[in-house]
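ingest -> validate -> predict -> emit
validate: passed (alphabet ok, no gaps, 400 aa)
predict: started
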Amino acid sequence: MTSPLSTLVCPYCYQRFQQRRIMFRCTSLLGPKGTRCAPARDAALSERFGMNEALPPVFAGGPPVGGWRGSARCPDCGGESTQRICPHCHTQLPVHFGKVTSRLIALIGAKNTGKTVYMTVLLHELMHSVGRRFDAAVVGSDDHTRGEFSRKYEDLLYRRNMLPGTTRPGQAELRRPLVFKVTLDRPGLFGARNRHTITSFFDTAGEDLTSKRSVDLNVRYLRGADGIILLLDPLQMRGARAAARPGVRLPGMDDGTDSPVNVLTRVTEVLYEAHGPAAGRRLGIPVAVALSKIDALRHGFAPGSPLLREPPATEPVFDEADSLAVHDHVRALLHEWDGEQIDQIMRKNYASYRYFGLSSLGDSPTADNRVDPRGIHPYRAADPFLWLLSRLDVLPSTKG
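emit:
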């Protein structure tokens, strides 16, 4: 449990605050004083996320009792409330926030890398096949996440078989993250116990990474991230485009499309500014560099390539040896595909990073931007996230 002075990071606005600063929202029920608080537009929610519905007022909760306060009484109506609120954006915080581990995973990538599709498939896999393998329960932490993910993401891709449109650039402040709680069994001194981790995903537009200024303004959540998944499209690399399977639709390279190297460079600059390591020291934040759309290139891999086999799935642990084999192979592919600058930047600036190759859909989409008729069969989509969980001591792993 955190202390009253512990610094927390809101999983919605990514602003930092101390435990004792957590606020509460009145229930607007009839209170002991015989009055009820009238709902009104919340200026903080409106400005941050464009939410203009009338809501009960928020109030300071007072000093936490024993480092934690789960409820407080409204000073106006006297009613007791358990709705704990971020003091910055006024979003209701997940249950047990501050008591359980909160891991913010930043998902970033240039335009047309397939971030929205990847996020949807990753979460779907965590809720189903990967969840079963690791005996993990993955649920949305709030009504917005549960409804938005089901209606906007999962329904479109898995039931209507349509790919989402490009995430609109700008107005990053108005895009609300999807927040999930991951519950795993971890062995302990007195037997297995549940371990809860709150994870937050933010679907940033690729165009929000095309300049240093836009990274600073629109990708604030990088500063609060515990781990990063950097999604790169190898088909945006000259060497990989030439090696793509015949008939694969190659992504356009217009003025709004920035190179993976430039995106990585800008993100690295922001992280240095945010974390401020001493001169000559590498960044400590773990970064999973994932090459997407690997299905379009697998036909050219040599027999024995780790990207031609399914990942081990026998034990509920992250397989470090398999991951290192993939890492070495992807690094070799980067040099083969004229992406050696990416490897140079990672080696010189990051103390903890890992390369991955994956396919969110399993096959390239059709010409009319729909899922292949054979359906969705992702390949190694969860590997980057599982590696980050293992690095953050949430998931056990084998020794490499």
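The longest helix spans residues 143-159.
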